[in-house]
């Protein structure tokens, strides 16, 4: 492409409302524009990146024998009522009525639609498995759209669905997708991790997330230094090592501690470690308050509680509810005498001689023995994993990293087929439920994640597989006919070699051209000017390393191929190190 | 592709709610499914057709130096309020609110969005022209969605927009698109006509529609037998041949004619031709009633009236309004003494001795002279063209045909740039408005229109450029190892030749395979069975003509190439005849 005929409106300054680097750079590089909160226009260069991502996704989905279809963005409410998600999905589901007052939503995902279609087609086990996918525009009415393409409201997803007759088939579908995702993210040239994950509002039996590793990620990944274990902290098991405190303690005693509201306050006042204090948290679970106990130096994990209770909606109780159920303001709740279902973290099994709130203003109980003084409904893993924990698989050391979720595979099991009665007749003529899986990739989010992971102070440093151009050819002396003739020859040569090249033929100063080339992030730059041409060379720059060298023009086909291979090998070494 | 691993759920019977042949066949051929009123799922084969159409559209748009981008489906109300279309677009514009009570719509078109973007980018004439397009999903909340993909609510369009600095540039953009559209529809292998058209709710100075010729089309095209003239009847000029009746007539006289409500009633009663009667129609134009006069044997053309008065909203008055403004029920309105703006068709210039309604129940006026008895606000072309009319270009004979609108190019002029203040600084530093054009192609509608034009009693007969497969290879004896080995060899051979082939390897009866092959509409069929193989031949069938012949397997590469060329040439001859 010739730069002069491309619509690439680069900006010198970052718009003030751009918060993260990918958002800033996508705007500055003329790849997208904001239409309104969380809704963006993909300009030609941005669309080109999405097309490169989609092409790789398509190839791997087709290779895994999933077939592409296209479902609508507007979905009827009736189907969402069948699964109950019309009620439970939350306000991210944008609901509206048409001119005839019929209810619809903008699809944030398509389980209902595809299950409805498949149940209408399938009669016999002979028609299974069915494995389908689409690349389509989704809408989620985020409460706080932010970070550009990272958490927009309208975005592009690849979503795939599998319908199998039995568990072995469903597992095979899941594994096919897991492997396809590994290939997709490797081919995209991203540093990523596949991690165990919670299934969230999609539901199902188990799931894996694919995380692009980046400091700016919203998710935290716990991983083991010794084995392959990696999980989203939302889900990572905190292993109970079986220590229980032995022996009795003094009777429970209420003690006034005016103003000592936090674990830190109480620990300081009594000069005890936070680990000797029990934190009591009140959650509202499907409209019912429950209490959760964790050690004072731990954080409760809301998602583990939600899964334990198989709940639909869960949130921390507000001050009014805390006051109502504990008779005290926040900070003084405690399990002794509390008339609520009480769930305690595994670590508190056999806990004795602990300090807790006393359900009274400015008071805490000391010498609390959970076995003696409290009726615990269940002990379970209810806390967040920490750096002190061990790997649940091998006992190795746990570390943490930040990630951006770009893919998620779910073993749905019977959740949707049961709710929507998606059945088939098996070999014996008995009616059975199909076993489902679903598999998402955030196509537009990948573009942002790739930039979060690959940029420097000058702009984007695209991994070659998703760069909008492989190479930028800069003509420094546009008005010099000899230079321009040679540049045109080089442009033709590169195109004849199948290189996706942007030829900067604009009537602009060299500084502008250098800046734009760095900003746009093509992995390779060729720079031709009067001086170089006099010596018969074109300068080249590896965008990532910044390393420069000169290529003799006379034998450019071979010289360029050699250099391009080096640049690609450096990138491949980078991917391989992950 | 192997049929056994393709998701192609064909149906023996047409679903009862399918009204037109394209709708029936798309469902029966397993190419799409209905999700809800006017909203469809494109199954893999349907999507493949859309992809083939899109690929041709993209190639020609890129060749015309328009660049692809992608705009959102959800659009903020503010922009539509700027142009006034929030108020005037009608209920097809699906409006809704997000969780924060902000107003949005689902985009039925993108003039507002792209004008907003471009006005934010362009400062100088040096940045123009800007020529962009997208292929994107649109939504129009049709009052009565019908005919499957022909008039759905959610559909796929290619929409393009041009921004130029001056009239010459805008004309060049328009011509580029007109030519690109001619190439696109020719390459798609469709019989079509480019016709002069009304600009409708998009607005602008002039426009052309591209119509696929088909008996089932909702539009009527008037065209000239002698020259290139063709126009939508909504727009086609009815030429006034300048005849005026000379001389005076008797004084106007009110005559009782009980029950004579229609032109036919009055003509029969008085034994005069309908051409001697004036029809008076009451329209409500932007909330104001006006009267329109046409000859009794003519039809008024509402769109011509709308354009004459530069109106936003227009409709025929209901009985209440007719009663109120004429003092009589429908059928007795007349221009004499009528206190409304009166617009008369050109043909009525100098009309004398006519019969009209008398604005009184069961009464008509005779001997009406328009010059003498009526104050006409304006004479204009306000009637529909008829077979008696002459070509407005060359005076030749006019004929009519039915068409399906699949493309529309609009010279928008300043409509949007004025409303949204989309300006630039010209060479002299003066601020000027950009001149716009917009250009649409109904991608999903093309699939339906192609079928309306190309089908027979057995199924679809796809033009080769948009067939989901070029060739179906039918294995008649799936369980015979020798036949199957040879079929596999032929399948490999065809693929190696770059033929897009569907290999029917299913364990089904020959009758099922023949029926499905005819239904799916691939232009070529190869049939291999035990008997043919014994003689060393494969049978082939041209799907369109039904002609069969045999190809010797031994030299199949050459034999198939030869036959395929024949089949293609027959199709090309068909296109060329249009």
Automatic annotation (TrEMBL), chains A, B:
It is found in: Cytoplasm. Its EC number is 6.1.1.15. CDD domains: ProRS-INS, ProRS_anticodon_short, ProRS_core_prok. Keywords: Aminoacyl-tRNA synthetase, ATP-binding, Cytoplasm, Ligase, Nucleotide-binding, Protein biosynthesis. One of its GO terms (biological process) is prolyl-tRNA aminoacylation. GO terms for molecular function: aminoacyl-tRNA deacylase activity; ATP binding; proline-tRNA ligase activity. Pfam families: HGTP_anticodon (PF03129), tRNA-synt_2b (PF00587), tRNA_edit (PF04073). The keyword Glycoprotein does not apply. Its main location: cytoplasm. Residues 33-463 form the Aminoacyl-transfer RNA synthetases class-II family profile domain. One of its GO terms (cellular component) is cytosol. The keyword Cytoplasm applies. It catalyses: tRNA(Pro) + L-proline + ATP = L-prolyl-tRNA(Pro) + AMP + diphosphate. Homodimer. Consists of three domains: the N-terminal catalytic domain, the editing domain and the C-terminal anticodon-binding domain. This is Proline--tRNA ligase. The gene is proS.
């Amino acid at each position: 492409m010739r730069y002069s005929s491309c619509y690439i409106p680069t900006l010198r300054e970052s718009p003030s409302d751009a918060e993260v680097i990918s958002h800033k750079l996508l705007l500055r590089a003329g790849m997208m524009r904001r239409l309104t909160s969380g809704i963006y226009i993909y300009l030609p260069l941005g669309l080109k990146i999405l097309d490169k991502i989609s092409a790789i996704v398509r190839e791997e989905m087709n290779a895994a024998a999933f077939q592409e279809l296209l479902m609508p963005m507007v979905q009827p409410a009736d189907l969402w009522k069948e699964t109950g998600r019309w009620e439970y999905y939350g306000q991210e589901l944008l609901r509206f009525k048409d001119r005839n007052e019929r209810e619809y939503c903008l699809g944030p995902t398509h389980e209902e639609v595809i299950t409805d279609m498949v149940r209408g087609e399938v009669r016999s086990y002979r028609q299974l498995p069915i494995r389908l996918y689409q690349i389509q525009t989704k809408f989620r009415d985020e409460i706080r759209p932010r970070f550009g393409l990272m958490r927009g409201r309208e975005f592009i997803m690849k979503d795939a669905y599998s319908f199998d007759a039995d568990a072995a088939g469903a597992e095979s579908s899941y594994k096919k997708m897991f492997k396809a995702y590994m290939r997709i993210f490797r081919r995209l040239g991203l540093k990523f991790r596949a991690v165990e994950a919670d299934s969230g509002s999609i539901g199902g039996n188990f799931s894996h997330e694919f995380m692009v590793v980046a400091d700016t990620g919203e998710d935290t990944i716990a991983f083991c230094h010794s084995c392959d274990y990696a999980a989203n902290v939302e889900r990572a098991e905190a292993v109970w090592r079986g220590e229980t405190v032995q022996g009795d303690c003094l009777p429970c005693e209420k003690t006034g501690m005016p103003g000592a509201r936090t674990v830190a306050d109480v620990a300081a006042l009594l000069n005890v470690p936070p680990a000797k204090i029990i934190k009591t948290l009140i959650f509202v679970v499907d409209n019912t308050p429950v209490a959760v106990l964790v050690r004072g130096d731990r954080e409760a994990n809301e998602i583990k509680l939600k899964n334990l209770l198989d709940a639909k909606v869960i949130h921390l109780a507000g001050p009014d509810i805390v006051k109502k159920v504990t008779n005290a303001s926040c900070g003084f709740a405690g399990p002794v005498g509390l008339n609520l279902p009480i769930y305690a973290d595994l670590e508190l099994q056999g806990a004795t001689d602990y300090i807790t709130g006393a359900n009274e203003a400015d008071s805490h109980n000391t010498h609390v023995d959970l076995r003696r003084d409290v009726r615990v409904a269940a002990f379970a893993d209810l806390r967040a994993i920490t750096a002190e924990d061990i790997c649940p698989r091998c006992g190795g050391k746990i570390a943490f990293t930040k990630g951006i979720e770009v893919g998620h595979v779910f073993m749905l099991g019977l959740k949707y087929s049961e709710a929507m009665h998606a059945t088939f007749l098996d070999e014996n003529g008995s009616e059975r439920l199909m076993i489902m899986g679903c598999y998402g990739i955030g196509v537009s989010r990948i573009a942002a994640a790739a930039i979060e992971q690959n940029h420097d102070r000058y702009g984007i440093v695209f991994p070659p597989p998703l760069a909008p151009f492989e190479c930028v050819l800069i003509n420094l002396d546009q008005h010099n006919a000899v230079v321009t003739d040679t540049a045109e020859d080089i442009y033709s040569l590169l195109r004849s070699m199948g290189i996706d090249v942007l030829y900067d033929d604009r009537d602009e100063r060299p500084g502008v051209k250098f800046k734009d080339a760095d900003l746009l992030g093509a992995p390779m730059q060729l720079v031709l000017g009067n001086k170089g041409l006099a010596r018969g060379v074109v300068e080249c720059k590896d965008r990532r390393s910044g390393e420069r060298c000169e290529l003799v023009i006379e034998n450019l086909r071979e010289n360029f191929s050699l250099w391009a291979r080096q640049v690609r090998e450096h990138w491949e070494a980078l991917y391989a190190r992950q």
